[in-house]
Amino acid sequence: MEEKNKVLLKEGDFLLIDYEIRLKDTNELLDTNIEDVAKKEKYAKEEMRFEPLLVILGKGYFQKYVEEEMIKNGVILGIKNTIEVPPQFAFGIREPQKIKVINAKELSKEGILPRAGQRIKIRDQEATIITVSGGRVVVDFNHPLAGKTIVYHIIPKRKIESLEEKILHLVIRRVKTIEKEKVNINIEENSLTIKFKEDVLDYSELAPALKILITEIEETTPNITNLKFIIEKEKPKEIQERKLTG
């Protein structure tokens, strides 16, 4: 059954996945898009979306090492595919030379009252305060997860094949408030028309989202040479009736 559901992948393929990302040492949950897992472990972050994530392999949508492993080995749909990412391909090897001693006065000038364990930004870098002793503060500029092996549990839902559906998923990835039912995709030869309902204008980040969307469409669908966005607005019912009876 598992071999039957195995899918071979290549760079540029569109894949929808669920995922859990965990620390190998402690099994601590670092990220997920699976609602049941998030609720069970009381995990929360800003703008959480409990829906399959679109990954375009080789385009930097997901962790690079994980994408390379999926391309190399393929994936089995519908079950957990586990990939361990060594430190050098995750958050880097822990480097002792990145641990510095800083005078507390330098931190106070930045408005920082140092406490052990505190995350700070200084010298345009993020760091963690290890110890505070008198006027000396030991600061670690390594990433907090440096030296750690990260485990990715990937549940591939399906590979997207049709061009129309690929475009649709690019749209809903960028225009975050849009519903699938309110997007119409029309492709004729090398021309693409994307129609939205009027309420798309309520999305405050619409302009930058469309700019990114244009770039992604150009990169992933090179055969499309003409792109058009249309926002449809229906006249209020009373105006339509007035026009018919007037």
Summarize the structure.
The chain has 246 residues and is α+β, with helices and mostly antiparallel strands. It folds into three domains: 1-93 and 146-159, Chitinase A, domain 3 (Roll); 96-140, Thrombin, subunit H, CATH 2.40.10.330; 162-246, Alpha-Beta Plaits.
List keywords for this structure.
24% helix; globular; five-stranded antiparallel sheet; 6 helices; 246 residues; Thrombin, subunit H; Alpha-Beta Plaits; alpha+beta
Structural topology:
Elements (H helix, E strand, L loop, with lengths): L5 E2 L6 E10 L5 E4 L2 H6 L12 E4 L7 H10 L1 E2 L4 E5 L13 E5 H6 L9 E4 L2 E9 L2 E5 L9 E11 L2 H12 L8 E6 L2 E7 L8 H15 L5 E7 L4 H9 L1
Parallel strand pairs: 13-14
Antiparallel strand pairs: 1-5, 2-3, 2-4, 2-11, 6-11, 7-10, 8-9, 9-10, 12-13
Q: Major β-sheet, in short?
A: 5 strands, antiparallel
Distance linking N and C termini: 66 Å
- Any idea of the CATH topology of the largest domain? Chitinase A, domain 3
Order of helices and strands: EEEHEHEEEHEEEEHEEHEH
Oligomer: single chain
Overall SS class: alpha+beta
Share of residues in strands: 25-35%
Number of DSSP-assigned strands: 14
Number of helices: 6
CATH architecture assignment name of the largest domain: Roll
How big is the Rg? 24 Å
Helix content: 10-25%
Shape: globular
| Integer average pLDDT | 90
CATH level 1 name of the largest domain: Alpha Beta
* Uncertain stretches: none
The total number of structural domains is: 3
